[in-house]
Amino acid sequence: MERKGSAAKGNPSPPAAGEAQRSQPPLCVPGGGGGTPARGQGGTAAEPAEFIRRAHEFKSQGAQCYKDKKFREAIGKYHRALLELKGLLPASGERERDSRAAFPAGAPNPGSLSEEQSKTVEAIEIDCYNSLAACLLQAELVNYERVKEYCLKVLKKEGENFKALYRSGVAFYHLGDYDKALYYLKEARTRQPTDTNVIRYIQLTEMKLSRCSQREKEAM
């Protein structure tokens, strides 16, 4: 049996610390939380701190929706949080681009972020992608390709993230890529050796690989 709080389909673990804001979370109101990114007086672009504040607010709303089992609304809130952060940090592989390259309208130059702000932005991104994967795993028909995509985004930023490693393994398992599934599941096990869900999926994956190997031998 899967342990309560599992990240697997049907009973994913709730967002980890940082994913859900427990202190006075905003109400889950469809379409709530504001429209376009905030702008200062006179139409000037908002400061990085304002984008970060709004992203944090949307993430908190998403966490409340998740808690209320309003998963589709939660997904929308997490996407809005990520949208607020778009342009605050240069994307992977773009750090060498010409600093004169254009940024999204209203977004400040990434170079204007302090070290603390950069860490905050990255932490919010990690929480949002992990939470998006958790929401998708609650669907009746799970989009494992999208779950994989979100988990790999987390792992690019935080390679030892247990939830992302485990969910990546689950996604690859259901996508039929058992070698990669076993890799990520074993990586997850090194972080939490006694997690029963990780152990279970490792056993399932090894059984699949054994059957595939047996069929290959019989076909020769």
From TrEMBL:
Record bears the keyword Chaperone: no
Composition-biased stretches (Gly residues): 30-43
A GO molecular-function descriptor: protein folding chaperone
GO cellular component: cytosol; endomembrane system; membrane; mitochondrial envelope
Matches recorded under InterPro entries: FKBP4/5/8-like, TPR-like_helical_dom_sf, TPR_rpt
GO BP term, pick one: negative regulation of apoptotic process
Keyword line: Phosphoprotein, Repeat, TPR repeat
Signal peptide: none
Pfam families hit by this protein: TPR_1
Residues covered by region (Disordered): 1-53, 96-115
Domain of life (superkingdom): Eukaryota
Repeat (TPR) residue spans along the chain: 162-195
Family named by the database record: Belongs to the TTC9 family.
Name under which the protein is recorded: Tetratricopeptide repeat protein 9A
